[in-house]
Design brief:
With about 250 residues, this protein is of the alpha/beta class. About 30% of the residues lie in helices and about 20% in strands.
Length: about 250
């Protein structure tokens, strides 16, 4: 019996084309709630970048598991190691790499370029306040966004031994503390609510969703997911623009 459902945002709940939650997804959430299933966000986004949506959630996994909470309590809080953050800022300043930094409740950006602006338009969010990159040194970072090509990932990983780079697009990579993942966030939420792993389902489409889909009792890849995500899933549904969530829920929930 399914008791908890976890949802990525971009490309899963929100279409890259419409930037909204579809009518079918709203119907699917109604069906889940009628069946007594708890619903949760599981995203790489920080809370300040999660838009209002016409569906409800009982908890949030944000910043790839860096900060996990319910309305009543914080379940996990694991920022990036200070030495790793400083090494990244040195590297980003030297190579003029556009960077965003997310604290527990705020965000800032530095060295923004045309690629960063295209990313803003693709995901339809407001750019964070711009600061000098040295201003970021004073703030605790739960997640960094590095707008750089995949070819630099191994070099950056070597600079930041206490961090990991869950990349889901060639345009940029997230940087989070080592050990942080959506799967870790799911485990914390399930422990809090008394839900077993096999009683969960999860929906995702990007590379940073793979661990989440593998951890879930049923991992469901969207039809628009990249091939390696579909290969990691137990089930592939239709795309976000073809009511993929509703199609899957109608098969799973009686």
């Amino acid at each position: 019996m399914i008791k908890a459902a976890f949802f990525d945002i971009d490309g899963t709940l929100l279409s890259f084309n419409t930037h909204r939650v579809s009518d079918g997804t709203i119907r699917a959430f109604d069906r889940l709630h009628q069946a007594g299933v708890h619903t949760f966000i599981s995203s790489g986004r920080p809370m300040v970048l999660i838009p209002p949506m016409p569906v409800t959630f009982e908890g949030h996994i944000t910043m790839n598991g860096g900060l996990v909470f319910t309305p009543e309590t914080t379940l996990l809080s694991n920022p990036i190691a200070e030495e790793d953050k400083q090494r990244w800022l040195d590297f980003a300043a030297e190579h003029n790499i556009a960077t965003m930094l997310f604290t527990a409740d705020s965000m800032m950006g530095a060295q923004v370029n045309d690629i960063a602006l295209r990313l803003r338009d693709q995901l339809e969010f407001e750019m964070p306040p711009m600061v000098d990159i040295n201003e970021m040194r004073r703030h605790e970072a739960y997640q960094l966004i590095a707008i750089m090509p995949p070819e630099l990932d191994s070099k950056v990983s070597g600079l930041m031994p206490h961090s990991r780079l869950p990349r889901w697009t060639p345009i940029f990579t997230d940087i989070v503390a080592d050990g942080n993942s959506k799967a870790q966030g799911m485990e914390a939420i399930c422990r809090h609510f008394g839900i077993r792993q096999e009683e969960t389902i999860a929906f995702g489409d990007g590379g940073n969703d793979i661990e989440m889909l593998q951890w879930a009792g049923i991992g469901i890849a969207m039809g628009n997911a990249v091939p390696e995500v579909q290969a990691a899933a137990d089930m592939v549904t239709t795309s976000v623009d073809d009511e993929g969530i509703e199609q899957a829920i109608n098969k799973i929930i009686p």
